[in-house]
Amino acid sequence: MTSLSGLIPSWPRLRHIGACYAVLCAPVALLALFVYLPVIWAFSKSLYDFEIGGEVRFVGLANYIEFFTQDPTTYVAIRNVLIFTTAAVLIRLSVPLVVAKLIISLPNERWRHFYRVLFLLPVVVSGVAVLLIWTSLIYSQNGLLNELLRALGLQRFCRTWLGDPATAMGAVIFIGFPWVGGFEVLIYYAGLAAIPETVNEAARLEGCTGVRKFLLIDIPMVMSQLKLMLVLTIIAGIQSFQNLLIVTRGGPGYATYVPGLQMYYNAFSYQRFGYACAIGVLLFFLIFGLTILNMKYFKSSEELQAST
Amino acid sequence: MNLVRVIRHSCVGLALLVGGWALLPPNGSASPHSGTSPRRNARLTLRVMPGPFYAPGITPGGVGTPNRAFADVCAAYEQLHPDVAIAIEPSLGAVREYLVTQLSAGKAPDIVMVNVEDVWADVHKGWYVPLDEYLEQPNPYCKPGQPGSLKWWDQFKYQAISRAKTAPDGKMYCITYDMVETGIFYNKAIFRQLGLAIPRTWDEFETIMSTLRAAGYTPIQMLATLYVDWAVDLFLDQLYYDILPGIDLHQDPVREVYLQGYLDYDEICFLFDRGFFTRHDPRYRELWQLIRRFRQFANKDIVSEDMLRAFITQRAAMLWSASPLCYRLAADPDIGFDWGVFYLPRFTTNTSPFASDVDMCVIGGAGVQYEVTSSAYADTGNPATSPRLAQVIDFLRFLTAPENYEKIVNEHPLMIPNIIGVPVLPLMQPFAEILQRRYTTTKWCYTFDLQFLDIISRTLPLYLDDHITLEELLSWQERNLAAARHRFARRKHIDFAPLQRRWDELAGVRATMQGLPSPPPP
Amino acid sequence: MRRPGKHWWLHLFLLMVAVPTLMPFVFVLNNSFRTSSEMLHGYFGVPRAARAALSCAWRALRGSPGPSFVITDAKQTLALSHTHALRYHLRLLLRNYRDAWTSVRPYLRNTLWVVCAVATGVLILGTATAFVLSRFPFPGRTVVFYYFLSTMMFPGVLTLVPSFLLIKRLGLLNSYSALIVPMVAGGQVFAIFVFKSFFDGLSQDLFDAAKIDGAGLFSLYWHLLLPLSRPVIAVVLIINILGTWNNFLWPFIVNTDPRYHIVASGLYVMSASESASNPGMLFAAYVITSIPLLLLFACATRAFMQGMTSGAFKA
Fold first, then answer.
1. Would you give the distance in Å from CA A39 to the centre of its chain?
2. Into how many domains does chain B fold?
3. Looking at chain C, which residue has its C-alpha nearest residue B30?
């Protein structure tokens, strides 16, 4: 008898479990419908060729083969996304960190707070508005850049910065200069603020200050933040294309075309949804692989501390 | 500290207030994008997208009085059919994205205005209603004895061009409501001052443009899209016309009557496999080089410049545009010069060794085209039994009744009437003459899907502005055509066997022809 | 003791970075008061209407004699009293804002709707789910947890196209639901993790004590858990609001009907349409649409900063 009652849950406990499941059913169902089903579809539909409302034809791996062997835009797009991602990594791992270091070097908490708020302020402007501001106010024919060049007598350098294949990519990377208006500074700041005072004290006693301390002490100590930013920037860099859609639509020509845009156009402009799904799947594997590599080869500061 | 709290709280209060205000529905006025509000007690509300030329409230070209005739005709129809209401829908900028989402969601208007070539890619999905059957029936709004009283088709003046809009599947998905044609607008004052006359050949045309450039004018205002669309069609026709007897393989019994020698996608696929339209095809090379030569006479920025401004301010002597511009120019009180219109002159053997030496063909033709979408028979789901579809067709017929038609099309001189018995406005006369010419050999950039068009649209401007070389351009176009050929062979089940038979039959004809492509390397 | 001179260098460097960061926004603010013809004539410059208004106000204050002359759009010259002229110029000054407001207002309304609905949904589902996962052992808890966790693995680029197909299949294209439901579904995951790690850190004694007092499941949740987690809720809310506010692509794809545009997609459509011919009006629209978040920022600076630091984990 006793062993049985241990196996069969009591009524209040059953009720309790029932309540738990009742609470969970809505979020579980939502995820099943809006995350897992699309993921399954992404894989399954990438094996088909179909337009909305059109004939659905099983083509096996033909979409993948087309991506690598027939689509004339593939390699341009891959080259561009590599350049964009590299540039984004270089920028996001350097400038905000330096600025965070500058802020934390201020002795007065009020000033530190002031600068953190100041650099966070631009997030209130809609991201789309920022991009449109850059295209219209800064890069356009009569934008800031050209006006400044004219004022300096350098007329011959004036151009439509986003419309010239030679400068379009540089201009896109340059958007947001000096790239500190956002959350990166805060993340590095949090990392720097978390460095134990004993470490700072020891460094000072050893005579390790300024740039030397920044390179030898601070950077290793914020390695987990750097690693996080690296992962986030790579993931975002590979899949993000909405900025390019707003700013250049991948042009002029294919100067700023990336696989994400290729996917977007194939789906929503050319109506080749199966092919677009295939591109999405390939990008997923790329991101997945890079994340795993990253976790394997870049040790975070906690791990570094543990190993030394 | 207290002050900070007060400020914070007042911020919250302000945010809530502003939020509440913004959340209130806009005062009184209906949503701004519905032109007319449908009547309440109507049994049926037909949704119609008249398109930018006739949409009520729109001022064509930004000059003169706003349109109203379409709304008047709709009101007359509602008067006639008290249980029917017509809701006029706005036309949207991004037509393609719009079509995909709206049509696939079944939310499109019953009647839409789209270039029928954009529709052809989707006809097999049942998004559009074939109109052939209805065109064979009489139009009840035509008086007995008049054209249309026996067969709706008879009402249309430009039969060849209208019937040429038949889709590749052999069905007609649009009413070709009116005609539009392109032409070169030129500044007569500048021409007179420099002693220039309307050119009869392409060489004369180039000489004129050189003279104009030497005199400090921009010879011709152009846009990148015009090279991609119009220039390619005209030039291709000029270069390939005389070898058409050897390469036109498809003898379509319905369409070929009107489209003498028109090259469809299957023919172009087949020819591509034989080395045509590749870097091994000398005519194809010549095509892009000639366009590049033509581009040198145009404005510096063909991608984003306002075409019209330089022409109106007399810094540019010519402008390639279409009939609706006439109205814009005629109605502008500030234009201080005479202008005229001529059509592009023919290539001669001086222009190119491959020139066919025939007059330039018509590339414009059908202007506003109305398609009936699947929304029209959403009531029964079957076009044959749908009373709603019958009503939509009835309304379309009402729109083509001469007295209504004249009100709409001749409200402003924008388009050339395509209905018999409706007078051509004087400003449209030159275009009506151009329309007498034969129709083009291809609509090259619309031959395949939007991906094909997109790649041309992106790469040709690069070549025209010297960002890529001819070889690079040819390589892009070749890969583009190869990919499109693959997609189409897969999607459309092209049967190449009859084309192959015809190709073999025509071997003798081709034997006499010069400059055919050497077969591609294996 | 550090030498004071060193800090001036820090300030100088920081200002050198801050000025170009904020400068575009200053230009936007300034140009939002200028007409398109003013902008054609010079990139820099104080709005003409503002200068005129100031001079009128100055003259009115000094009580200088004589009328103020005003040149209208139709090139007519009017002689007005100083106060009338001032009012006239102020109206001109705000003209861009008035025009922008009429187009931006529906976008703002839609955005506020969607933001509120998504935030509410995420908050309710997030706290309840995290509560259950954190505090109640039940069979399958780990499975459910991993079920939530593994959704983090799938990037947006993988699910974008199939999600569109799904929304289409559900017949939700061009509706508020097309925005709200998927955003709640996606947004809850991050909320669940943040709430769960917070709830895990709470002392079990609190709950035991409440249970002894006879509190039921709901009562525990409502009277104990929610009041305790106010700061975390603020952080999650801020991240969620920012995420919804800045989501451009999804609304742009699923809602092509202008009636359902939110600020992000609406601004893009505006800039691409006819209204782009008056840049001043667009700039005014950018300013107007920044105000709600600016107010939020002013109200909850601290939660904002915490949110941005932890929000990065979501991206």
1. 20
2. 2
3. C259
Which two structure tokens, joined as six digits, stand for C76? 């007519």
Q: Are residues B70 and B208 in the same domain?
A: no
C37 shares a domain with C144: no
From B337's Cα to the closest Cα of chain C, the distance in A is: 25
Q: What is the pLDDT of residue A177?
A: 85
Report whether A272 contacts A62 (CB < 8 A): no
C-alpha span between B270 and B503 (Å, rounded): 9
Same domain, C80 and C105: no
Q: What ipTM did this prediction achieve?
A: 0.88
Residues B292 and B412 in one domain: no
Of the candidates B216, B196, B218, the one whose C-alpha atom is nearest the C-alpha of residue B207 is B196
User: B351: which 2 tokens?
Assistant: 């222009």
> What residues make up the domain containing C83?
26-93
User: Taking 90 as the threshold, does the pLDDT of residue C141 lie above it?
Assistant: no
Using CA atoms, how far apart are residues C261 and B124, in angstroms rounded to an integer?
31
Q: Tell me, yes or no, whether B28 lies in a domain.
A: no
Which H or E run contains A49?
Answer: strand A48-49
Instruction: Search chain C and give the residue with CA nearest B96.
Output: C256
Helix residue spans in chain A (DSSP H):
2-7, 11-31, 37-45, 62-69, 74-105, 109-120, 127-133, 144-151, 168-174, 184-193, 197-206, 210-213, 219-221, 223-239, 242-247, 259-264, 273-297, 301-307
Distance of alpha carbon C17 from the chain centroid: 24
Q: Which domain holds residue B171?
A: 44-180+366-431
Q: Which of B377, B396, B431 is the last residue of a domain?
A: B431
Q: What is the pLDDT of residue B255?
A: 60
Are B455 and A72 an interchain contact pair (Cβ–Cβ within 8 Å)?
A: yes
User: What ranges in B24-82 are assigned the alpha helix state H?
Assistant: 69-80
For the cut 50, the answer to whether the pLDDT of residue B46 exceeds it is yes
Among C172, C259, C297, C299, the residue to mutate for chain B (most B Cβ within 10 A): C299
End-to-end, the C-alpha distance of chain B in Å comes to 84
Query: Is residue C106 domain-resident?
Result: yes
B490 and B412 inside one domain:
no
Reading the block at residue A185, the tokens are 């500074």
Provide the 3-class DSSP secondary structure of residue A217: helix
Single-letter amino acid code for the residue at B249: L
Least Cα distance to A274 among A68, A61, A35 occurs for A61
Q: Do C100 and C275 meet the contact criterion of CB atoms below 8 Å apart? A: no
Collect all residues of chain A within an 8 Å Cβ-Cβ radius of residue B491.
49, 55, 57
Q: A12 vs B430, which has greater pLDDT?
A: B430
Cβ atoms < 10 Å from Cβ of B511: 9
CA distances, B475 to each of A104, B231, B481 (Å): 55, 20, 10
What are the contacts of A259-264 at 24+ separation with CB within 8 A?
A: A259/A74, A259/A77, A259/A78, A259/A81, A259/A283, A260/A81, A260/C157, A261/A77, A262/A71, A262/A73, A262/A74, A262/A77, A263/C157, A263/C160, A263/C161, A264/C160
User: Cβ distance B97 to A269 under 8 Å?
Assistant: yes
Total domains present in chain A: 2
Q: Residue A140's pLDDT is what?
A: 83
Residue C302, in any domain of the structure: yes
Is the domain of C89 the same as that of C104?
Answer: no
Q: What are the structure tokens assigned to B190, written together? A: 């500048």
Instruction: Average the pLDDT over each of B48-57, B254-263, C238-247 and give the range with the smallest value.
Output: B254-263
Please check whether residues C65 and C142 belong to one and the same domain.
no
Nearest to B480 among A51, A72, A160 (CB): A72
Asked if residue C3 is part of any domain, the answer here is no
Cα distance between residue C289 and residue B474, in whole Å: 47
Of the candidates C17, C128, C158, the beta carbon closest to that of A180 is on C17
Contact assignment for B105 to C112 by CB distance below 8 Å: no
Q: Which domain holds residue A208?
A: 65-307
